[in-house]
Write a structure and sequence with these properties.
Blueprint lengths: L1 E5 L16 E3 L18 E6 L2 E6 L5 E3 L2 E2 L4 E2 L5 E4 L2 E8 L2 E8 L36 H34 L1 E8 L4 E5 L6 E2 L2 E4 L2 E8 L6 E7 L5 E6 L5 E6 L7 E4 L2 E5 L2 E6 L2 E8 L6 E7 L5 E5 L7 E5 L1 E2 L4 E4 L2 E5 L2 E5 L2 E8 L6 E7 L5 E2 L3 E2 L5 E8 L4 E4 L2 E5 L2 E5 L3 E8 L6 E7 L4 E7 L4 E9 L4 E4 L2 E5 L2 E6 L3 E6 L6 E5 L7 E6 L3 H8 L3 E3 L5 E5 L3 E4 L15 E4 L4 E4 L5 H7 L7 E2 L2 E2 L12 H15 L5 E4 L2 E4 L12 H10 L67 E7 L10 E3 L10 E4 L8 H4 L4 E4 L6 E2 L3 E3 L2
């Protein structure tokens, strides 16, 4: 239950006076019943005295005020909490009166809100009982106050002690023992920081956090370092005290200013009194100019001790004597002049190079090894007079020079010779007279000999065609070609040239008394090309290729021509580059040298594998790779390359072996060697001429659906590559036998009247390639014509190829 008593009421409600009985808590006719307390038992009284509220226990049930047990009457103030068994009473003191808030803490014996009943009057018909008066005399309020003050002081003291003990317990629980090891053992150790002074044995009890560790020992640097405690179990901190340095004193006796280095670092000059060094072993070097370095090792004990080092430097020089005949020569050592002979000089140790020089004499050079504090004399140098120099020149230069009949070189020339004597000099040059001179050599001087050679002259008669050609001798124009030249009897370059003609060059050496002639007929570039380009060549396998000059042609066929196909559009083409084309198609034997496992196979039981028959069942890519193989054998650049898994032709096309272009095939089969183009390989009309080629003859009747009536080859399938008669320029089987792959990618060209294509190569991209010419399987008017165009991408038993290459 919960409820409230208004001890002082406003607006006519009754006021609880001091003469009223107190409120009984838990007793008979109790105003505030208690759970678990006998109905006839009173646990405590609440009442007013001198205007102030108090509580007084009665009986065995404990009464608590603000958590402390009440043993006698106690004054109550605003905010006090009284606890009696299962009831909690909260006091609220207000200006209009005092209010008690009652709360039942248990649910078994819940208490109804209290009803205040006063003597002499009943305020409600619901009141069942009245408060029974008891004998009670409250203590004076002053006494109550003093007692309450005493109680509160004890509570404060109690809570203070409890807080201190709690703090100690908190520190013990949250701190961890830390073991501190310091080598060597210090004389004093201190840990500074919050609650850092607790030490248990050799360990310090520290909470996690930052601290400062201080350690001191005589002879060592004071240790003061920050440390961080992490709160781990068995945490150990280890440190080492750094020993105080020692001191080094260095005394070099009477020699002052010597430099002293310790472990390679300069520490000063002698005398040194107390250079600070860390304890341990140190390398010491003492050095002074012109003295040998002093090296030693010292051990510094540290802790402020002083180590004294006495040094005696050894002189680092030696006296060296120089002499010469004659005397007075200047002496230089390592390039520095030190005096004139005779001379004694102090030199530092080491290998030294010396030189003695005297005007009019050759330098005398040598080397010596100087050892410190060891005197040395250099052997007396006998000086030799300077040589003489002969300087010989000729016009023209390049003459051979012999001195006293000994060859010495070509002019211009300087020769060193012994002095004080005469020499005979001979100069010879092809085409010039012998020249002889005599000269005396002077010591240390240059004697000059300059000779203009007299030329020997011969006659050269130049005869040239055409008459107005220009003559050039040794790079200099001398007029028209037809003339007589008088030239020195030495080699001369003769050049005859005229615009539009190939230059002529030769070298001629005139001879005195023997006239010579040069006869030249200049050739045009076309004449030279025709002369220099052979009419036929052989491939690395011995296949014959014939030279074919280009020209203007019309590819395709007229729409009125019987058998014409839609892809045979008329277009004008001009071939400007001469080319070679093989007389025969590539045979099985030749192709198997490139690709040994190739199989041409058979058709209807007829063998296509015969060595001298054309290779078939090859792809266009196989044919292109075969051409590259031939180019490699001949050292020519390849025409085809692998690109992205495909074989493509390069542009521009070089001199390597390749397949003929479609235009070249059309020119060679229809136009070359003729006044007008052919329609069929044998002529301009049907039927097929006797023995003109290998077509679908009657012997192939068992293999093919259609054949040529009355025509016999006599080969049912392929025929030897050298069978049947050649065409007008010597090519075999241009029609019949096998159709042929050509270089071009297949496309259908539009008709472009008035446009002339020059050396066409076909499209750059595409999946299919052009096939030209009829084969042993063809019998129709359309296929037998030379303008027939086929295409494909796969190998066939009636398709092979022939090879070509450019001539220039």
């Amino acid at each position: 239950m919960s409820g409230a008593f208004e001890l002082e009421q406003a607006q006519g409600r009754r006021r609880l006076a001091e003469s009223d009985f107190p409120i009984a808590v838990g007793g008979p006719n109790a105003d505030i019943p208690l759970s678990g307390v006998s109905a006839t038992e009173t646990a405590a009284w609440l009442g007013l005295s001198d205007g102030e509220l108090f509580v007084q226990p009665k009986g065995a049930e404990p009464v608590l005020c603000n958590g402390a047990r009440v043993t006698t009457s106690q004054w109550l103030r605003d905010g006090d909490v009284v606890r009696v068994a299962s009831v909690r009473i909260t006091v609220e003191v207000r200006p209009e009166g005092t209010r008690l808030e009652v709360d039942a803490l248990g649910e078994e014996h819940s208490t109804e809100p209290p009803v205040i009943v006063t003597r002499g009057s009943e305020t409600s018909s619901e009141v069942a009982e009245t408060v029974t008066a008891v004998e009670f005399k409250p203590r004076p309020i002053a006494a109550g106050r003093r007692r309450r003050f005493g109680i509160r002081f004890a509570v404060v003291a109690f809570w203070f002690v409890l807080a201190v003990l709690g703090g100690v317990a908190w520190f013990v629980v949250t701190a961890s023992p830390v073991e501190i090891h310091i080598e060597p053992a210090p004389e004093r150790v201190e840990v500074r920081g919050f609650l850092a002074g607790v030490k248990i044995g050799e360990r310090h009890l520290l909470r996690p956090g930052s601290y400062t560790l201080i350690a001191e020992k005589a002879g060592y640097h004071r240790l003061e370092v920050p440390v961080e405690i992490e709160g781990r179990e068995d945490e150990i901190l280890s440190f080492t005290l750094e020993m105080l340095p020692g001191f080094l004193s260095v005394d070099a006796g009477p020699l002052t200013g010597a430099e002293v280095f310790v472990d390679g670092e300069r520490v000063g000059v002698t005398p040194i009194d107390g250079a600070e060094l860390v304890p341990g072993e140190h390398a010491v070097r003492v050095t002074a100019e012109r003295y040998v370095d002093f090296l030693t090792t010292v051990t510094i004990d540290g802790q402020g001790s002083v180590h004294t080092l006495s040094v005696e430097l050894t002189p680092g020089w030696a006296e060296v004597s120089f002499a010469s005949t004659p005397s007075g020569a200047t002496v230089r050592v390592d390039g520095r002049a030190i005096g004139s002979t005779p001379l004694t000089h102090e030199l530092s140790p080491g290998t030294r190079r010396y030189e003695m020089t005297l005007e009019g004499y050759k330098p005398h050079r040598g080397s010596l090894t100087v050892v410190a504090d060891e005197a040395k004399s250099v052997p007396v140098a006998t000086l030799v007079k300077l040589d003489a120099t002969l300087r010989v020149a000729s016009a023209p230069p390049g003459a051979s020079v012999a001195v006293d009949e000994i060859f010495r070189g070509l002019t211009p020339l300087e020769i060193v010779v012994p002095p004080d004597r005469s020499y005979e000099i001979e100069l010879t040059k092809a085409g010039y007279e012998l020249a002889v001179r005599e000269i005396r050599a002077v010591p240390g001087e240059i004697s000059e000999v300059a000779v203009t050679l007299t030329p020997q002259v011969g006659e050269i008669h130049v005869i040239a065609t055409p008459d107005d050609a220009e003559l050039v001798v040794d790079g200099r124009g001398v007029g028209p070609a037809n003339q007589v030249l008088r030239l020195a009897a030495v080699p001369h370059e003769i050049e005859i040239r005229k615009e539009g003609y190939r230059d002529f060059r030769t070298t001629v050496t005139p001879r005195t008394g023997f006239p010579q002639s040069v006869e030249v007929a200049l050739e045009t570039e076309e004449e030279v090309k025709a002369r220099e380009t052979p009419p036929s060549i052989r491939s690395p396998q011995g296949q014959k290729l014939i030279l074919i000059d280009g020209g203007r042609l019309q590819m395709g066929a007229s729409r009125r021509e019987p058998g014409r196909r839609a892809n045979e559009t008329l277009r004008d083409v001009e071939l400007t580059r001469r080319f070679y084309l093989s007389v025969t198609e590539v045979s099985n034997h030749e192709f198997r040298e490139f690709q040994g496992r190739h199989i041409s196979g058979q058709v209807g039981g007829v063998n296509l594998e015969i060595d001298d028959h054309p290779v078939v069942r090859v792809t266009w890519e196989d044919a292109a790779r075969y051409c590259n193989w031939l180019s490699e054998k001949d050292g020519l650049p390849p025409v085809y390359v692998e690109r992205g898994g495909d074989v493509v032709g390069v542009r521009p096309v070089g001199l390597g072996y390749r397949l003929p272009t479609e235009a070249e095939w059309a020119w060679a089969s229809r136009y070359a060697g003729r006044d007008k183009p052919l329609k069929y390989p044998w002529g301009d009309s049907l039927p097929v001429a006797v023995a003109s080629g290998n077509y679908a003859d009657e012997s192939a009747g068992g293999l093919l659906a259609g054949t040529l009536d009355g025509y016999e080859d006599p080969y049912p399938a392929t025929a030897p590559v050298e069978s049947f008669r050649p065409n007008d320029i010597g090519l075999l089987n241009v029609g019949g036998n096998v159709a042929e792959w050509v270089h071009d990618i297949y496309t259908i060209y539009p008709s472009t009247p008035g446009v002339v294509e020059v050396d066409p190569l076909g499209p750059e991209e595409g999946d299919l390639h052009v096939i030209r010419g009829s084969s042993w399987m063809d019998d129709s008017v359309s296929e037998l014509r030379l303008t027939y165009r086929d295409h494909g991408g796969n190998p066939r038993p009636d398709v092979g190829f022939r090879i070509a290459r450019y001539a220039e």
